[in-house]
Each structure stands twice: as structure tokens, then as C-alpha cells.
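Z., the sequence and structure:
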Amino acid sequence: IVFRLAGNSEYNMSPLKTYTADIDAYFSPYKDHPAVTLARKLASERDVGFDAVMGLAVRLSPPPTLKPVVAFTDDVPDARFGKDNAILFAQRLADFYRDTHFEKFLAAHQAFYHLAEDRFRVVLNDLDLNWYKSFYGDVRTGQYLLILGMNNGGGNYGPRVVWPDGHEEFFSIIGCWTQDDSENPTYSTDYLPTIIHEFNHSFVNPAFDEHKSEFASARQVYEHVADKMGAQAYGNSDTMVFESLVRAAVIQYMESRGHKSSEIQRLIRGEQSIGFVWMDELVELLHQYSSQRAHYPTFESFMPVVAQFYRSLAPRITETIASFHLRCVHVTGMRPFPNHSQNAEPAIKELVITFDKPLDPQAGPRHHGYSISLGPDGEEHFPISGTPEFLPGNLSIKLPVALKPDWDYSFVLTPLAFASPVGYPLETYTISFKTKR
């Protein structure tokens, strides 16, 4: 909440609009509290945000004390904080809790929190925590802690805490990006891969850190996908590598639980579409690890093989990217007027989008074959007024629209569901136009 007040965009996603409106109404009088002022300064000057914030949160005692439970250093909880800033922020956070009478806000929303917990239970039916020891070969004992981040929107995090006595805590902090008509949280099994993903960080990241010096060639790979990685707040090649491994390990988990090959394929293609174009190869590499556990008893022991994979990928990354994009689906046109038209007829009731490859009408997590997001102009400029319909041959889709004169419109066709029958996704495509007077 403090970093929301400070203006960090990742803590200002607001799918649960009633709840976040309550946050803003209750805490806005404190937007210049010393804790918020410090958060704003740390975000601006030291790039503190995203996982750094959650990494500090899990290393504090419960309120109202909010004291560090492990020794803070220049790297713990995060180098972006630094030791002195982390200690100072924890002190000011405790002041914020006291000065805002934070416990009153928590008490007023207990029913909301309990509803979220009850609804989340459906996701846990297929969660097998024993898989982690089996897959990673790690005999460390630790406690798995799953936290619902009600103000995190689509942000999810996987910090790990090592206590002074050596025992560990593995966290999966899960945001919420779905809601019902009453703007209360809803959850489905679509959240399961995210839980697995975030717990994976507690095992993948330390294994990578032990072999970090072997991954110099990953920098060359990163240069070619930096835009897509940066859009996900993955700012360097180290983050790219362990994110790729975390995601490939999620796919290993889903395979181990007997998920359909079509779902596995969708997961692989989805990762490729957001920049990890080598994901199919990396998944195969982890199959090698799983089949040779006598030789590779732990995931950490396999890391030199992963490093060699990135060394082999670096000189062919341009070709790998081009090959993937060639197989993807692309928009070829729009009628009755073209994209970017500045004189569109407002009486038009339908748009037809055409593609260079047939689409699968059953693709996507909800099996309806299409995924369309708001455009850069926001909800007031979103023209689609009904359910899209695939036309015969599946090379085009009809979109019902409601337009008015002299108005800008925009929307985005995304790869979340648009895909070919063999799973290759649509290249993200933004449509924008303006109607005439």
C-alpha cells in the first residue's frame, strides 16, 4: 500500500476496484507520510519496486513491530534498497502502520480476505509440494508459504528467506486479476502455474547463483530480446536465465501431473510469444535432466549443462527468433476500413480482421480462440460491443462494434488465445482508428 501511494505502477494495478478504492480513500490523507516519501525517493533514485518490495515485506516481523527478522545487509533484502535504506524504511513502515491506524482498515476488510481465501482453495487441489524435492533433488527443509496479494493485481513474486538458524521459507505471493460482478476476487485452476512458478524461484535462483559466472554468453541472447524482457521488468541476462528456467520447470510440473499435450504446447508457445523463443529447446533440455538423475542428482548439478545450452544458443539466437516469428500468426488486413483510418464511418456495425494462417477457435485458456485487450486509449475508446465470431476457414474473425462520430478507438489482439491449430500464437497487433464527424 505504501508503494501504491508512492506511485509505483506495479502496485497500482486495480482489478479489484472496490477494494483498491477503499485503499485510496482510507490512505490518501497519508500520501505524504515519511514512509511514502521515502518509498517515492527509493523508487526514483534506486529503482526499488516489484520483487524488492515483497522481498523486504517477508523479512519483517508481524505488525505492529515490523522489525527485520534477519540481518539486513547491502544485498538483503535487496541490493536496490541497500542496508541503511532498508533499515530506515522498515522503521518508517512501522510508523505508517501506527499513524494510519492500519489495524482498523484490516478489521474492516476481514470478510473480504476470508472470501478470497475460501475461493482460492479450488486452486490448491492440484498443488503437490512434494514435487519440489523430487524435481530439484534438494534435501533442504523449508516451509512453503502461499500469500494472497490483494493489492498486487497481476504481479506475482517468489522470495526466499534464510533464517539465522538455517531453516528456510519459500514464498509464492499471488496477485489477483479476476473478479466477479461484485468486484470480489475469483480464482480458477488457471492460477496454478503461477503458484508453481513463484515457488520455483526459491530453488532455481540459488542454483543459478552458484554458476552465475558460467552464463556470460546469455548477455548476447538478452540483447536480442531486451525489449520483451524489459516490458516484464526483466532488466538483465541473469534475470532472463532464471526466469526461463522457472518457466520451463513449471512445464515439467504440468507434464508430471498428466496435463494434456495440447495444454503443454500452449504453455510453451505462450512463453515463446513473450520473448523466450527457445523455450521448446529448454523444456527438452530439462527432459534430459529428468531422465539422467543418477548423473545429475540435483538441479544445481545440471547447471553447467544449462550454461552450455546458452553458449550454443547465443550464436544462433537471431535465426531462432526469425524461425519462431515465421511460424506465428500475423494480421494481414481489416475491413471495411483499414487499420489507422482517420475517417472511419461511424455507422459501421462490424469489423473483420484477416490473418495469414488459420486460427484454432478452441485455443486459449478459456477455449474460445480469441483474446482482445483494451488499447492505449483505455476503456472509453474500446469499440467491441459483443462476442467475436470466427468466419468459415478460420482465416478471419468478425467483431461487432458500436461507434460514434469523431471519436478515437483502439484495442489489442493478443497471443493469449489467438493461435494456430499447432499452437503458434498471434503476433500482438494493435488496432486504432478515428471515426469521421
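The first strand starts at residue 142 and ends at 148. The chain has 15 helices and ten strands.

Let me know what you think.
H.
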